[in-house]
TrEMBL record, chain A:
GO terms for cellular component: cytoplasm; GID complex; nucleus. Residues 1-36 are annotated as: Disordered. Residues 180-237 form the CTLH domain. Keywords: Cytoplasm, Metal-binding, Zinc, Zinc-finger. The lineage of its organism: Eukaryota, Viridiplantae, Streptophyta, Embryophyta, Tracheophyta. It is found in: Cytoplasm. The keyword Calcium does not apply. Signal peptide: none annotated. This is Protein MAEA-like isoform B. GO terms for biological process: proteasome-mediated ubiquitin-dependent protein catabolic process. Residues 328-401 form the RING-Gid-type domain. InterPro entries: CRA_dom (IPR013144), CTLH/CRA (IPR024964), CTLH_C (IPR006595), Fyv10_fam (IPR045098), LisH (IPR006594), ZF_RING_GID (IPR044063), Znf_RING/FYVE/PHD (IPR013083). SMART domains: CRA (SM00757), CTLH (SM00668). A zinc finger (RING-Gid-type) spans 328-401. It comes from Glycine soja.
Automatic annotation (TrEMBL), chain B:
One of its GO terms (cellular component) is nucleus. It holds the Pfam family CTLH. It comes from Glycine max. A zinc finger (RING-Gid-type) spans 329-372. This is RING-Gid-type domain-containing protein. It is found in: Cytoplasm. Its main location: cytoplasm. The keyword Coiled coil applies. Residues 21-48 form a coiled coil. SMART domains: CRA, CTLH, RING. Keywords: Coiled coil, Cytoplasm, Metal-binding, Zinc, Zinc-finger. The gene is LOC100792593. The lineage of its organism: Eukaryota, Viridiplantae, Streptophyta, Embryophyta, Tracheophyta. Residues 150-207 form the CTLH domain.
Amino acid sequence: MEMDSLPNGNNTAGTPISATATATANPAPPQSSNLPQLTESLKLEHQFLRVPFEHYKKTLRANHRAVEKEMSAVISGVTEAAAADLSPDDAVNHLNSLVCRLQGLKRKLEEGSRAEHLQAQKCRVRLDHLESADAENMSEWNNTRMKRILVDYMLRMSYYDTAVKLAKSSNLQDLVDIDVFQEAKKVIDALQNKDVAPALAWCADNKSRLKKSKSKMEFQLRLQEFIELVRAENNLRAITYARKYLAPWGATHMKELQRVIATLAFKRDTECSTYKVLFEAKQWDYLVDQFKQEFCKLYGMTLEPLLNIYLQAGLSALKTPYCYEDDCTKEDPLSQEAFRTLAMPLPYSKQHHSKLVCYITKELMDTENPPQVLPNGYVYSTKALEEMAKKNNGRIICPRTGLVCSYTELVKAYIS
Amino acid sequence: MELSTIKDAFDRVTKKQKLSCSKTQEAIDQIRQEIESVLDTLQSANNTDHELDYKTVLNELKASFLLIAPLSQMEGTQKELNVALTKYGKLLEKHFNPDISKAYRNIDIDRHTLNQIIANHFYHQGLFEIGDHFMSVVGEPESAAIMKFPFVEMYQILEAMQNQNLEPALNWASTNGDKLAQSGSDIVLKLHSMQFVKVLQNGSREEALHYARMHLSPFATSHMTDIQKLMGCLLWTGKLDRSPYHALLSPSNWDKLAEELKRQFCNLLGQSYNSPLSVTVAAGVQVLPPLLKFMNVMAGKKNEWQSMNQLPVPVELDREFQFHSIFVCPVSKEQATEDNPPMLMSCGHVLCKQSILKMSKNSTKVFKCPYCPFDIDAAQCKQLYF
């Protein structure tokens, strides 16, 4: 409540309400209108634009490929008809069916173009969102960013329902990649049920791009399928399978291939550690992890959740030796055990300029509010000390040592 | 950042996409028309019993397809689309940081700890339903209740205040009066003052006066000026909006009071006012750009980074992230430590102990302050505690 600005005939007596308020609480952080800093932070948003764009590109390619295929089919349909000896009725029927096909294709094209349009829209919404960030709405924008980062974390950890709930409740659907992760969810769910089919289908879908990045995802899936055949003692089928699906990888991955083939000799209950691990259930977890990595790479996402990246950087930035002292302020995240635990293996912050915070008011001590030294060497801000002197008839009591002195005994310290 | 360039590039992509789409439709229509016209010819030939060589007609159709070349027609626009797509992709890479995980240290983050932090964040923000859902999904519904409980009360109070109902807030303040007084907060007075103004606005002067006697008088000794102002309001009963005190009616007072209450409530809970997760992530956003720049320059030192004890680049954090006093010696550029504390020289300038020892040749010589013409005697320097 702002009462101090009111005239009441006793204005010179000071403003106790606001003074004690700042003494107990941190002042609201000043709105940062630091433009270069904002620009720098926007540059971190590559994934935010990249993922919907990759998705859009993928849809474009798939639609185009489907159209091309259908068109060639129709054209070769005519060529075949011309070559074959068809009765007049058959020829008419054949041509009619081709017309039907073309009509169907046109419908499909329209549907596809609608989907493309929606995805293009999403790309544009994100560009607009980045553009909308300015000094005035910073705290709200940052709040949204926090939620985006959390949704990203939950999607990657497979907490889909919570992610959807959070996105819906804050109306963030266009700013998060739930639809993209739905695709991953199907594959992951199947892998967790020891079914490689959807994963293989995904590999086939993205064959050329996976090949470009030298991914061996498909090989690993095939190896696992082979192991399952050996586990079931279906050795003959296993050998046929290996000839068909594993042999092509021989040129590049011979060692792994040989090791897995050797399981034919060792069987599922082997005690030989080299081969025993291949039969373990955690191989499936490994496949899930592997898939997640490939998936993220393909869509241009960071391999780690955004939350982990920002959190780690932030913890390092905030970590000082003082954070671990008992009187660390509650406002410092590192006063909390959970944050301290996470910061343990991380480096300390580094600063090139002195930044002094008044123990009493928690305000910055700078040229406007210079630090003053008590006879015992303890330092507080001028504001806090003036306030105290006013209340106690010029007496100063050091809040940390209990020393009592006079305001006139204080010495200004110059910090450069 | 050149967001407008990027947007233009994207507009180009969608334009090319539309072009490619309509070209494809055109091609489909063209082929269909060709087939349909052949069908018409065949049909009319049937009707007139005119002899027609099907083979020739079909071959003609085939030849016309070759002429139309629908696939190569589509190819042109598709190529243009691909060019636009590639260009946009490259622009993204150029203007943004394509891999922000470059400065990430590959260490396992304890999932349980992190999940606790996230849940606490949700409750701190008042997102109870999502917090509960999250906790049940990660399989820790038991600890959810303990974490949630205090925040539930806080948000109930805040919600009531949104409807200008101070009852729950006053109840909370009276139960926690001692603790609030101990921490030096005057939120109790602020709440009562607000309630007083509310009573005065709705009710009679009598009632307001009664309220003031009951609840404001205990603050007489410590907050006389404030109470004087409030008493002044009594003179303007019914026309407070035209009084010198009209600022007391401003709706923003309610927001300020709510913020202050949240601060005090969190303080009593031993929690921070801002969600610690938000604070840390926001600090991360500030420190990542210089860190990534360093990583790009120091690509060869990747291994060193994994074991560094201190960030390799200095960070400039905003005031809101400054929780502790950091003293950097202006001579040695080192951060002060317990073994190397800041010392006040007789001229008022401050250096670290090591620097003073060095300049005074282990306290054997008088030296000149690097910032002013004063002669300094090391023995007269005093250790500072920030």
